[in-house]
Hints:
Helix content is 50%, strand content 19%. It has twelve helices and nine strands.
Amino acid sequence: MKAIISSKELMKVEFPFWINRSVQGSIDEHGHEFVELVYVVRGKGLHIFEGSSYAVQAGDVFIINPGETHAYFVEPGDQLEIINCLFMPSFIPDALLSELEITASMDYFYVHPFLKHDVRFNHRLNLHGQEAASVLTLLESMIREIGCGGLGHTTIIRLQMIELLVLLSRYYTLMQQHRAVPSPRQLDREMTARRIYGYLERNYEKKITLQSLSLLFNSSTRQLNRLMREEYSRSVFEALHEIRMERAKHLLLETSEKVIVVATMVGYEDQSFFNRLFLRHVGCSPTQYRMTG
């Protein structure tokens, strides 16, 4: 088994967030249960993801999703200074997303991290000038806030995290505009479907309904399913079940949790229903999968 870093080691349930600035040396392949946003302050090195190496340098920003594994290689004599921003998807609650009406302004969080690996890391953000300064200022402010723990620091950090993700999404959108795109209407439909899919990836363990998604994405339930079928050839819940099954497969192989616990961790309260879905999607029971994996 690869090393899996638990959220319990670094953050509290009531405030699932941590941030750290360090000089990163070479580190073996590992994964984690939380989202990791990385900003390269200075230096250079190699970021290794799914067997491929990507050169990283000052100004680079990238996101590692829960369950994914990666590593770093830094040449002797070189330095790679990074800021690691670690958080659970639940750190930004749905109520806040809905109230601020920002689901369409979070593409760096809901869209880019779920593109194909070569696209994600060959076309990652690289910030310069004022863009880099704005992002670094926000990150350094969060480091100070979590360090001092002053009155209201959790609220300030949560709001600054939202500001950071919206800002990165703006820079990501500007980067996308330099390539050929389909018609504005087609692009809007495509991006909405991708945002929905990204939201499901981030929140698969929650109780998700078409009505709650309809409110978040300001669209009818019928339209949500139509957009998903156009982009992914499956309904919202077909996509959600697939995402949950993939996560369940990972948990069965990488942890020793009981099957009933794994079912709960991926959003199913009924173990019998989970077992039937798993058999349909994977071709064997969860127990058989763990034994043969």
